Amino acid sequence: MVTAQGNTIECGHLYTRDAVTNVVAMKVESSTIDVQVLRNKVEQKWLSAKLPGSNDPLYPELKSGVRQWMGYLFWEPCQHFDIKDRIKYITNADVTSNWDDVCTEAGFKNLVMHLLRDRLWVEGKPLWEIIVVDESCFKNAVNFDNASWIFFRDHHILSDGWSIFKLLSKLFDDEDDILEKVPRAIFERENGTLWTRFIAQVQFVLKVPFELVDLIIDILANRDTLPTFSECGNLYKRGAVTSIVAMKLESPTLDVQVLRNKVEQKWLSAKLPGSNDLLYPELKSGVRQWMGYLFWKPCQHFDIEDHVKYIKNADVAENWDDVCTEAGFKNLFMHILRDRLWVEGKPLWEMIIVDKSCFKNMENLDNKSWIFFRYHHMMADGWSMFKLWSKLFDEDDILEKVPRPIFHGERTTLWTRFISSVQFYLKMPFEVVDLMLNILANPDTLPTFPGGSCDVKLEMRNGPSLQSLKQLKNDLGVDLQSLLLAGMTASIRQSYQKAGRPPPENIKLFFILPMLGHPDKLQNHLTFCCIFLPIGESDSMKRIQVIASRIQRFKRSGLPLALFLGSRVYGSMPVPLLRRFIVSTPLLFTNLIGPLSTVHCEGKPISSICGISNPPDDGTDRFECGMAFLSHSGTTHLQVIGMSKYFCDNQHPEEYLDRCIQEWEELEIMMPS
């Protein structure tokens, strides 16, 4: 008897080559096997077997297929079950692999692999099959060695190996005592007296949690079997969770030494209130892995010149001499975001400066300077980084001028606040379950286009003035977030139209919300808002009203707090386990409403700010397409980034942002004058 098993893959691969299929091959010392006799025996011993004292079948799964409902799999009896479809000679089984040399070692192996991997299960049909190879099946009698083969294949969803062995034993001639002759697993030794058995049982139960912890520690300690450090979130690869912010200064020169001194004073030497401990120790630390977890480890030889420098000293391979052109800036932006890799053991932040002194060709100079600041998202969220950067701006009150997120309206009395809090926490578990069911019920992703690669496309441009957007959202009676997402929804609908596909009713989107009580330290203190954009709705006005309603309902629910608390548990997992639970989302949206007035750095006004996060290498984790909206001194900036397979050509990202802005213009026209 020979057994083989396919890969253990999730249920989504039930009808693909990666299905969790098992094959048992039994060699029978006979030149012939009567398949009808085998069918009769299966009918009698398997299909007609009843539960003791009942008329219910003992093995109903053998005459059932699988159906899916709300993300769950259920057995559903087949309406037209025919045993001839389940038990047959290989000549009647549509087996494409050559079985004429099954009696040779290579031929047998090829046939087993074909049945295991290439013979796919049929949707709605039972997940088992018996294929017989005997003398009558051979085209070339020379290959026959007077033995027959029975191949039994099943999907592991049907049962485990011991259940299948007990099932097959009913077909053996000596079935009555075969199970008694098979050794059973013995977990503990028999004890002689009642007292010794009781003591052994108590010891057994008490040791279980410690043995479980010991097993987990052993698994983590044998790190050769775990993902390598570079695989833990692609920390040192192109798919790293890197974010970048580019600031344009209205000055042709920028003194890097002055900036270093300010960083040293405001960032690196900052202390916790009433303590000598550093406020931002991560800025002088690298990352190390131990027991599956990532920890900050202070760098032995930290040099600020490695982290704040002119671009000409930064080993940047991309040409920056045309950074003042739109195409040149975009190329440099993408190079720093995606192609400039983090160095193991070094801090995960960097400030690169481009000013007059860096240009080879002075004709390209437009009397502007650029600061490119990049960091890994494991250091902190965007709000932490904004607070960090506010220390370098000349203005002292910049944080007071930036809007903060509000999750709940104020209650008038203590009693109403108490009642509201009770309702809030009682509803939270049901809201979480409802969200999970909605996510499972809306699995749609962005449409892909042929010829796409794992390259990334980026487009950026200035948007409408912040004042005009605020006026429009007030006229519509919605919040700014809803207005921004209405534009994004229209762009996604356009992508489906370009792909020649009707848009689904909804598509899920995540955007980040900073939590109240955000600490002064560098930290990812945030939660997620998950809503479903109604891309199936063709009416722009109805779409934005639905979006606004869903956002407000989400913010007023317990979901922001529940997801925040869940992220605390999620983030405490070892990295190898963490990687198993990374959730991919089709769309990610980021927005940051900056100060309404111009800010300055080293006395030089900052005229433009843009930034975005790096998508993964293959789109299988984090997000597939991201859009960012940033505002500064009344101006706005839009960016879209995603894998090239989601854009049909180089003009598609431009059209994506064009359609977004067009949607806002159309909504403005729809408003009564």
UniProtKB/TrEMBL annotation:
Pfam families: WS_DGAT_C. GO terms for molecular function: O-acyltransferase activity. The keyword DNA-binding does not apply. One of its GO terms (biological process) is triglyceride biosynthetic process. InterPro entries: O-acyltransferase_WSD1-like (IPR045034), O-acyltransferase_WSD1_C (IPR009721). PANTHER family: O-ACYLTRANSFERASE (WSD1-LIKE) FAMILY PROTEIN, WAX ESTER SYNTHASE_DIACYLGLYCEROL ACYLTRANSFERASE 4-RELATED. Keywords: Acyltransferase, Transferase. One of its GO terms (cellular component) is plasma membrane. Residues 524-652 form the O-acyltransferase WSD1 C-terminal domain. This is O-acyltransferase WSD.
